[in-house]
Design goal:
Elements: H1 26-37, H2 44-52, H3 64-96, H4 100-136
Helix pairs in contact: 3-4
Length: 137
């Protein structure tokens, strides 16, 4: 049907000024929308142009386990940034201490913070193990 149409790219000064209207049932529209969402086309119009003019349509495949892994890694990264910030603040605080008693209080608090840090690191290790098991199946 469209074999005689040439695949001509849009020029920089060429604008789309013609409209084509098409009536679909709800099920047809849903099928079309679902099919277009499985591609890398930005919108339904681009998907339809590719189909009508027989241009290649690139389908995308989402690896949900990788997506989940990325979400967990994002949380872990945020936690590590918080830890790094606290560590920087602790070092700055240590530099400002000049009395021995104040230093002893700080050291006690720092020891508690380090215990919390190792607890978080342990949780991170468990999360990484879970992700590895998911990824490797």
């Amino acid at each position: 049907m469209f074999n005689d149409l040439k695949l001509i790219g849009m020029n920089a000064d060429e604008k789309r000024n013609k409209k084509v209207q098409l009536w679909l049932s709800q099920s047809e529209y849903d099928t079309l929308k679902t099919a277009s969402q499985k591609t890398n086309c930005r919108n339904l119009s681009e998907y339809l142009r590719c189909c009508v003019f027989q241009r290649p349509v690139i389908s995308s495949y989402r690896n949900t386990s990788a997506d989940d892994a990325m979400a967990v890694m994002g949380k872990l990264l945020k936690t590590l940034y918080c830890i790094a910030d606290r560590q920087d603040l602790a070092v700055e605080r240590l530099d400002k201490l000049w009395r021995f008693e104040e230093h002893r209080r700080w050291r006690s608090k720092y020891k508690k913070d380090m215990e919390k840090l190792w607890d978080v690191v342990g949780r991170i290790e468990k999360d990484v193990e879970k992700m590895t098991k998911l990824w490797l199946g």
